[in-house]
Amino acid sequence: MTSTPKIAALIVAAGRGARSGRAGPKQFEPVGGEPVLRRTLRAFETHPRVASILTVIHPDDEHRFREAAGPKARFVHGGADRQASVLSGLTALQVDPLDFVLIHDGARPFVSHATIDGVLAALEAEDAPDGAIAALPVSDTLKRGAMGRSTGTAPRDDLWRAQTPQGFAFPAILAAHREAAPGRATDDASVIEERGGQVVLVPDAPTNIKLTFPGDFAMAEALLAANEETRVGFGYDVHAFTDGDAVTIGGIVIAHSHSLAGHSDADVALHSITDALYGALGEGDIGRHFPPSDPHWRGADSRVFLRHAASLLAERGGRISSADVTIICEAPKIAPHADRMRDVVAECLGCEASRVSVKATTTEGLGFQGRREGIAAQAVCAVRLPTARP
Questions:
Q1: Residue 213 annotated as binding?
Q2: What is the pTM of this model?
């Protein structure tokens, strides 16, 4: 094994979720305003030791997956059941040699970095096992039942509830799945156990729930509400007119009698939104992250700045509640372009266009805007940030 183990995450998200009571597959349904799978993927995307992520999806879900995970996210089609889907994913991963793989349910969006760390620590212990799984000791009294009646009490001593992620030495889990009888495994640890392998139990958090039934979604919303706060940031930007024949506002190039002067593309709308988002995060302003003294950013597309601010929000497990920008100018006319600007902002922020508002006003001929000397914009961003990951 290399001195720095190479670790991949395999996210299993090919199920239909028939018991969830939702219109579509549960992993693509919203929780806290964003798809369940997006939250799940973020937990692994932001973990410093996970080198790559592959998601196993149903062939019918490619469009849903790209909407939830982004156009660059890697996926492979699953099989007839979970066991076949995992084997499909493992087979795809073998082209890039790995030391460990973490196999996780796509419908467990609240897995913590602490749980992932615990599984990895167990795999890397001096007396390393063949596998390590997140698990919870059974605390409830267990009953046997038939026809709706209790037929006795079952001992709960030494019983654990298997969760995910389940981590394995990659060659061992690939071989085990290839040799396993089709359709029998209820989790990945069982195929290792059938070969006589050793699997370690890693205590998990009770909040690492799998969303299966309708009530689980209500519980997920409650977990988020109890562990999130709303923060608001304000942004303002202004640029003067200079010689030219077009301006860039909201990511849209608009023909005009002048251009806007600035170190980058002088996009006042995107600059104000970016500063508002930095403000909500307590991250200063654009100049702190992209100094105008740095020639690298001369003429830069301001979407780069907004995407950077959005990436900081995502790294903290946050999400956009709303982004509202007002562009202040006499000309050019903003209304004909506002919908396209809204789409650009939503794409940069990774949110629905319905959470973005782009509008314009004039100063009734007053001030520098009224004298047509330049354009200003002001923006307010509201975000939801976890106080502690559920």
A1: no
A2: 0.71
